[in-house]
Amino acid sequence: MEKTILMTFSGKASIFRLLTIIAIIVSEYKSIEAETQVPSANMAAVQVSQQCHINATIEVSVQMDTDVVLCCLHCSPKEFVMITWTIFPGDETSCIIAYKKDKNITKETNCSGTRITWESEPERNFSLHIEPVTIHHEGYYQCDLVTPDRNFRSLYHLSVLVPPPVVNLSEEENGTVVCKAAAGKPAAQISWVPKGDCFTVKETHDNRTVTVKSTCTRNSFNASNVTCFISHLTGNRTLYLNHEILSFRTSGAFTMIIWIVKFSLLGGILSLFFWANYDIRCSVC
Known about the structure:
The protein is α+β, with helices and mostly antiparallel strands. Helix content is 33%, strand content 36%.
């Protein structure tokens, strides 16, 4: 009986110790969890601050005739005083779009006809909308956000890509083959297969587009088929030229000219012979 009682008491003591250990572990876990939650919140604040504080210029490239939205900040402060977008185009007067919260007014300076507007209500969305993008929209876009605590700034450099509207491959009468990509931005790159004796000329226009023309000697290609590759950031083009067919056409035209000359000479000789006989007959008469 005593032995049974001792074993029961010993079992209860073990269970009590186990429960005590579990309670201590749970208490320590909650303490650790509470401590780790504070650094987590601080870390999130640091990340938001880094996202809001942009020091570098962000490069943005868009194709002409498309829409673009520029975000002022990746975060949205609850309180702000004023937001200002300043646009510095490459060859035009700077444009300023601003919104002042306390008076709920917007103001634009030198922005008429630029097709640059707020994406939506500026008190809720600081983004700028350009629709559609033209080559004149290229430049720097600076957003300044004033808050009660501090000021934030983001800066974009917008580059406008223009696909070459005209591309062609032709064989000239002077014995050259010409591949051309007109008025692209940036300048297109031209390469040949097979390689030949070629030179490339670039012409920059007033609107900053570039026409590229590559000229090759026709006889420098050791193949009947010639391929011109036009590479551009907006897309690539491939043009083909059957050198043999064009050469055959050229030689055929040259042969025709030779036959025309021969017939002309023959006609001239016959005419002289006729008039000579006519003079002899007249002298005999």
